[in-house]
Amino acid sequence: MEIKDVIGSFEEAGGDCTTKEKVYSLLGRLGEYHESTLEHSLRIGLLSRDLGSMQNREPKAGLYGALHDIGKISIPKSLLDKCEGFDEEDRKVMKGHVVEGYKILVDYGLPFSAWIALTHHRCQPNFYPTEKEMVNYPFPIAGANPSTRLLADTWASLVGIADVYDAAKNRRNDKFNGMILSPQELKAWLIKQNPSSEQIIERAYENGIF
Ligand SMILES: [Fe+2]
Ligand SMILES: [Fe+2]
After folding, report:
1. What pLDDT shows up at residue 46?
2. Less crowded by CB within 10 Å, the N or C end of the chain?
3. Residue 174 gets which letter from DSSP?
């Protein structure tokens, strides 16, 4: 899977040239730093594009999905490569990728992507950042109205669903004691991790996205 093929499939998202150049540049950096995180990001981009199109005919969610883990550029490779034996310190460092992603994307002038990078783990039972931490990271669009903010939160939840799906299906770690989940177990896990999105998950299965 190549960056240009995936981003090219977001043509209908209508991102301008400058936005696309920024996305290419960021994903290129991610690929140079850690290839399997780039591959994960591209898969999330495609899944988010399809979930966004299904939910509100907004394929732009693909761009947000592709950039959701860009903050992992700032996480040590040794931790990104770790498959088992995570301790509290590892978890704390890894959680930092959401804030790193927010900062990188705000600096790049991609505020929606920044918000989604910051909040894509917020709809899960073990969510982060916490309410207290969120006070430090304002919504990066000055004067945004509530519906804009709601839209960004909706996209973040779609990207979060795609992320949990891909991680359970493709990431090697000790979460499931090395076992591969059956399709039924995977669906149940997805709903358990995204309890507010059960209907969306059901629709995604009906539509063949998962
Ligand atoms: Fe993440
Ligand atoms: Fe991810």
Report:
1. 93
2. N
3. T
Residue 12 CA, ligand 1 centroid: distance in Å: 25
Cα 41 to averaged position of ligand 2 atoms, centre (Å): 7
Q: pLDDT by residue (tens digit) across 112-140? A: 999 999 999 998 888 999 999 999 999 99
| Rounded Cα distance, 160 and 163, in Å | 5
Domains delineated in the chain = 3-206 (1.10.3210.10)
Tokens 């950039």 belong to residue: 67
Find out whether 102 and 67 touch, Cβ atoms under 8 Å.
no
Q: How remote is the CA of residue 69 from the centroid of ligand 2, in Å?
A: 5
List, as one string, the DSSP characters of 185-198: HHHHHHHHH-GGGH
Q: Count Cα atoms within 13 angstroms, Cβ side, for 52.
A: 26
